[in-house]
User: What shape does this take?
Amino acid sequence: MKTVAAIKLGLCSSVFSTAVLASVCFLVVWSYWYFEFDADCAVHDCKCILFGTSFAGGVFVGGQLYRCRYVWYSLTVSASFAALACIAYGLGILCSVGTARQRRRSYDQAPTMTDDDITRKSSQVSKSKIGLVIFSILMAVNTMIASIILTNGYISTCQQYVHRVNSFLLPTGKMVDLISNRLSCETIYDFLDYLQPPSHEATLELIRQHRPNPRNDIINTWNWLTTSIIMSWLNTILWVLLPVTFYFL
Assistant: This one.
């Protein structure tokens, strides 16, 4: 019994770790570009690094804010429930040790369970097991949707920022095809980090709010985003494994 609980505890700990890493990495990038991509946007809240859009004249704006919120909230909820599960299984293992000792002492005096008691107890266990399986499946679906949004948003911003790179370099002939078709997303995001000019409107907004400008330092956007994507998909896989573990163990 302790072995089963230890397996579940290890799995929940892995879910917690991957969710925390994914959410922290994504939050670093999101907060870094939060005001920058919204400065030239007049349609909606463009404070999202995902699904950015290039416009004529060299303007680049972020995607709609709700997409980034959904990704981050989903990862945070995943980490929260995994932390609660870790606490529950950890306490269960500790309690089982003390219960086993007490049970050995009072084994001869223990009352005999009837068939009705055994049936009632197994029914309660099966209901709780089904509830955990359904909840884990819902969480797996939610984290999968968040991972898909995160991955597609990363690719979309990369493809859109190619137009911004062309406006920086002003290529001609085959150079246009080279930049559009051969440069990796890692290189495109490096252009974003180093060549995207700081927005005057975003700088004034940060000064008004008495907040430091994150653009004073340069981050590796590609590295943070890809780490978040990898951890998010690992988190999804672990949530898929959890209902299987709950059902068969």
In short: Residues 115-169 form the longest helix (55 residues). The chain has a mean pLDDT of 83. Strands lie at 48-55, 59-63.
